[in-house]
């Protein structure tokens, strides 16, 4: 076959968010050795960028209170292991461990900035300014998450110009990459294209962007396809589809890494991921979490044996 | 917004397959009045083509043994109500009721032709020949379902040339439309494009084609987007995502009509469907079937109330 098609990239970098974004809202605390094993298995399956944890105050995200202990258990893992930092205190904790890839978490809307950060958008950017500057001075790369890029549970559809404005400011602060988040999963492919075109028009090209889609309305993979067609080569996904926005309208969450890899394999786009090993990892993690993976691919591949008995 | 995009159609016809394809493998027989009410509600939600039933021998599909009784209950439903016919006997039953839109169900692979029809591909086409001829003589349109167009559970990937060959023969028999089925859900967007381009090269244009995707690996909506970008304007879907191939590797089945409508609404493509009424219908049907809808959009929209209480 003649894949990949002319309008598609040869290679995609998957930014695996399962250990951080996937686990952060789990009510039952996952033991640190299980998290470390999860990350190790993800790396063994071929994932090369795995967001490991967040250096957030334990009061806000008890699940990730073990960030230092977890990082200490990850020596030798052959993957980039970026971490989220909410503020200067979190950044210093990460830098002290030698971490040189960090991420900050911003919002395109005032309502979500208030709900998630207890600040206005301006105030949150002012808070990020010294964090990004200090990180860059220390030689770290800085990913900016920009949430609610398409719709907001309180404000409805988010104007593209508003998203472009906040994106521009995050780059001006010194962010090296921006991850465009459809936090409540309402985006559709034309909206994705429109945002990417508008960002391009203000000088933000696709090679500095990642996309982060949620599957609340089943749109995540179609939106990803649309983003790839617009030149994006970094895609966020969560092994097994774990995690999800607590503000979204149902339990479905992140784009499942397996569903993404299935599509990319079919498109002839190299990811370096061994789908069977990744699926086995997600089945193992689902057992720990006590409920089946929401990933269609995980469900289908893990039913292979029962199928063959038919 | 500037939707629909230049490369997208203004309007899509949804071929709703829930009452036939969605219900045919249900083990518990759904009462005929419930089926009639289902179809009536689908029409009230704005669906204009609803495949109602199959005039198959009751021994093979007990669930659809009530075809005549059901059709008699559908007077006044404002929608096209095509039916599946497996053979000449089934066709005569349908024609006797005044039905003038029928469908036959073929296979692109020998293995599935054998498993589903107990015939070779040649033998099945020979069986369809008088059915299609008689239907056309009676003034009926004839949809040809072509299953296993991408992969086959016994044969693996299906060569595009093989699919094109069987497709060509179905049109030569007199079929007026062909529905390309990814019966086990393994297709990916580049494969879809390649098949549509190859069909175009032998004179089968997209306006005579429909696509019929299954969501077994989460690919159905991305594949649909790819088909729309290649000019297809008829899309098969099943309300609530009910139904699925018994040969596929997990329980997930047809592309959910609601997930499709969510995407098309976002793309500014007219479908005439009222998403809230459709979702309410799928929730109602899920109650009858005794399990939740697999559609992400149905789950999200039907959780709206509980969200607002948060």
TrEMBL record, chains A, B:
SUPFAM superfamilies: Aldolase. Keywords: Lyase, Metal-binding. CDD domains: DRE_TIM_HMGL. One of its GO terms (molecular function) is lyase activity. It comes from the Bacteria. InterPro entries: Aldolase_TIM, HMGL, PYR_CT. The keyword Repeat does not apply. Residues 12-279 form the Pyruvate carboxyltransferase domain. The keyword Metal-binding applies. NCBIfam families: PRK05692.1. Belongs to the HMG-CoA lyase family. This is Hydroxymethylglutaryl-CoA lyase. It comes from Streptomyces humicola.
């Amino acid at each position: 076959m003649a894949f990949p098609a002319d309008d598609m990239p040869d290679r995609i970098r998957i930014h695996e968010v399962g250990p951080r974004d996937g686990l952060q809202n789990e009510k039952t605390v996952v033991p640190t050795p299980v998290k470390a094993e999860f990350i190790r298995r993800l790396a063994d399956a071929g994932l090369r960028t795995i967001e490991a944890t967040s250096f957030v105050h334990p009061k806000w995200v008890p699940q990730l209170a073990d960030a230092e202990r977890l990082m200490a258990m990850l020596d030798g893992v052959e993957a980039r292991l970026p971490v989220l930092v909410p503020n200067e205190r979190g950044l210093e904790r990460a830098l002290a461990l030698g971490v040189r890839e960090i991420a900050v978490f911003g919002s395109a809307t005032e309502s979500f900035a208030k709900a998630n950060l207890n600040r206005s958008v301006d105030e949150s950017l002012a808070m990020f300014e010294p964090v990004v500057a200090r990180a860059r001075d220390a030689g770290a790369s800085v990913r900016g998450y920009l949430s609610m890029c398409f719709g907001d549970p309180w404000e409805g559809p988010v104007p593209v110009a508003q998203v472009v404005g906040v994106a521009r400011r995050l780059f001006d602060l010194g962010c090296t990459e921006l991850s465009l988040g459809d936090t409540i999963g309402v985006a559709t492919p034309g909206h994705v294209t429109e945002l990417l075109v508008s960002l391009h028009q203000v000088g933000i090209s696709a090679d500095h962007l990642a996309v982060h889609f949620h599957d609340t309305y089943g749109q995540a993979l179609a939106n990803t396809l649309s983003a790839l067609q617009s030149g994006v080569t970094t895609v966020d996904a969560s092994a097994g589809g774990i995690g999800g926005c607590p503000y979204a309208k149902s339990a479905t969450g992140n784009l499942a890494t397996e569903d993404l890899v299935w599509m990319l394999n079919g498109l002839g786009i190299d990811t370096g991921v061994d789908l069977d090993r990744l699926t086995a990892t997600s089945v193992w993690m689902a057992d720990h979490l006590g409920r089946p993976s929401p990933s269609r691919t995980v469900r289908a591949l893990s039913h292979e044996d029962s199928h063959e008995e038919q």
